[in-house]
Structures are given as structure tokens and as C-alpha cells.
Design goal:
By secondary structure, this protein is of the alpha/beta class. The chain contains seven helices and seven strands, in the order βααββαβββααααβ. The strands form two sheets. A four-stranded mixed sheet has the order 6-5-4-7, with helices on one face. A three-stranded mixed sheet has the order 1-2-3.
């Protein structure tokens, strides 16, 4: 089987980490627990299919509101570029809060599906890039 025993992993920790970093991820078992160990580049590739999308609204005062589809976040700013930056910051703040409260949030029915987006944000670790990468569609006012 592909699963490596946790006792062996612990004994050979340094070589296991080297293998994960330079070769491939590891599947590890400890009694009934199963886990995955990989480098962040592999996780980035896995999470690449998760894309943040938003409805974009131009308000009567000319400001721009973005309403994120994947997570219930809304940001308004004088321009789209500023709204994207604000949304990137809001995504990062939410991701950090989610991670801090992981036991609660990951089990809540309305937040459970946020897990891949949270880890994408945490691994990206750049609010500006998160905001720039949002795919916007014009919303209907």
C-alpha cells in the first residue's frame, strides 16, 4: 500500500521531508488516522482550479462594489483596482480567521466548502495578487 507508517516517518523524518520536498508527496497512517504531507508547490497546483469570482457593480456615485461568489464578502471602493485590493485583503483576513477557528468553521455547513479557497489564500499570502486574480462579471444593479 502507498501509506507509510507514522512510526517509520518519525524515525526517518529528515529523509521523509527531503523526499516530500524533492520527489513526491507522502501518504502517512497512524493507527486509524490518515494524512497527506506535501510541499506548497504541489498544494498550489492542486488548488489552482479554485478561482475566486465576483459580481462587479458600478454604483451611482461611480464607486465599484465587488461581491465574492465563493465566500460571502463584499467590498466597495472608488475604483475597481481599489475594490480588488480591498477584496484581496478581506479574503486574507477571512482565511486567517478561518484557520484560527478551523475546528469550528470547517464543520459549519455554510463554511465547510470554503476550505480550498482558504488554503489557496493562505498559500498565496499576497492580498494584492488575490485581488488581481479575481474573475469579475458585471452584476445587475
Amino acid at each position: 500500500m502507498l501509506m507509510e507508517n507514522a512510526t517509520n516517518v518519525r524515525k526517518e523524518w529528515s529523509s521523509v521531508v527531503d523526499s516530500v520536498m524533492h520527489d513526491k508527496p507522502k501518504l502517512i497512517k497512524r493507527t486509524r488516522d490518515r494524512m497527506w504531507l506535501s510541499n506548497l508547490e504541489t498544494m498550489k497546483e492542486i488548488l489552482d482550479i479554485y478561482i475566486f469570482t465576483a459580481e462587479k457593480y458600478t454604483e451611482s456615485d461611480g464607486s465599484v462594489t465587488l461581491s465574492l461568489n465563493e465566500i460571502d464578502l463584499v467590498e466597495n471602493a472608488p475604483s475597481e483596482a481599489e475594490a480588488r485590493l480591498c477584496m484581496g485583503q478581506a479574503i486574507m483576513e477571512y482565511a486567517m480567521e478561518y484557520y484560527d477557528e478551523y475546528q469550528l468553521y470547517s464543520k459549519a455547513p455554510n463554511r465547510k466548502g470554503h476550505v480550498p479557497y482558504v488554503f489557496k489564500a493562505l498559500i498565496t499570502d499576497d492580498p494584492k495578487k488575490l485581488g488581481e486574480d479575481i474573475v469579475c462579471q458585471d452584476g445587475k444593479n
